[in-house]
Amino acid sequence: AKNRGKNCFKYFSPNIGQRSREMATIEQRLHLATENQAFELHYQPILETSSGQIRSFEALIRWNDEQLGRIPPDKFIPLAEQNGLIVEIGQQVLNQACEQLCQLHQQGYGSIKMGINLSTRQLTRPQFASEVINTLDRYRLKPSDIYLELTETSVMKGQKQTVRNLSKLSRLGIQIAMDDFGTGYSSLSYLKRLPIDLLKIDRSFINQLENDSNPAILSAIITMAHAMGLEVVAEGVELESQMRFLSDHNCDLVQGYLFSPPRPADGILELLQAQPVP
Ligand code: C2E
Ligand code: CA
Ligand code: CA
Ligand code: CA
């Protein structure tokens, strides 16, 4: 039916029109959600491999829209990056995560840290570093209480302002984590150029451990990171066998469904209370 009639409709696919209408609706709702601060954060624990103790939580954004239902972050974050809403959303995430961490500290878990995901659009703003510091002050947190997760592609662009912000934040004592490490066009040179403290190995390396070259790559990444003085987190750990490999190869930290999925705020105290006493 597509090829019937006029030539100019030859390549028309009803799916494209449908999809862009869907995106337009999502974008409209996203503006509203941002105005109404309608986002929620879920938190996933990151454990020390050797002790099994929870070191930190990663804050992961959730959007449950009245009309559209749950929209996964992989769908709306890229949109928010395109239209610039991510700057405002990112500030809301930072606020909410710091407020939650402040509460945890008041509840007696003062050594727990919080990982916060960033987009490039946030890092290219000259005022970003001071906004982070102001937020920490507001919740009476220290720079070392949080760390910022960014992806390879976002820093690869190597914008001057990004590097300046990262250096400033790092000098102030905020740790920087390289997220999804090993995906994208990995270049090791930026690991030397940028103030990175933590490598988060992408879960594709963990969930394909049983085949071919992945175990060698994984152990090489861990060895290299340690040689550079970085700590290593394995993402997406789902199986005991994966955990055993990571433990045998001295991976410092682990995160994944094997330990816990991301949970709403009211579920994380329970996790901490269920921990073995150190
Ligand atoms: P990410 O930063 O790599 O986050 C890890 C993703 O893996 C999360 O998906 C998490 O739920 C999922 N995950 C955790 N453990 C496992 C596991 O054992 N197996 C599998 N298959 N998956 C696991 P989520 O929450 O859907 O987030 C997707 C992406 O959206 C994040 O990837 C991050 O890039 C982005 N994102 C989430 N929250 C924020 C935010 O506040 N700001 C920004 N800029 N991006 C965010
Ligand atoms: Ca992350
Ligand atoms: Ca990741
Ligand atoms: Ca990711």
TrEMBL record:
Residues in EAL domain copies: 23-276
Manganese keyword on record: no
Alphabetized UniProt keyword annotations: c-di-GMP, Membrane, Transmembrane, Transmembrane helix
GO biological process terms, semicolon-separated: cellular response to nitric oxide; signal transduction
Coiled coil segments of this chain: none
MF terms (GO), sorted A to Z: cyclic-guanylate-specific phosphodiesterase activity
GO cellular component: membrane
Transmembrane helix recorded as keyword: yes
Annotated protein name in UniProt: cyclic-guanylate-specific phosphodiesterase
Species this protein is from: Motiliproteus coralliicola
Interval of the full protein contained in this chain: 537 to 814 of 820
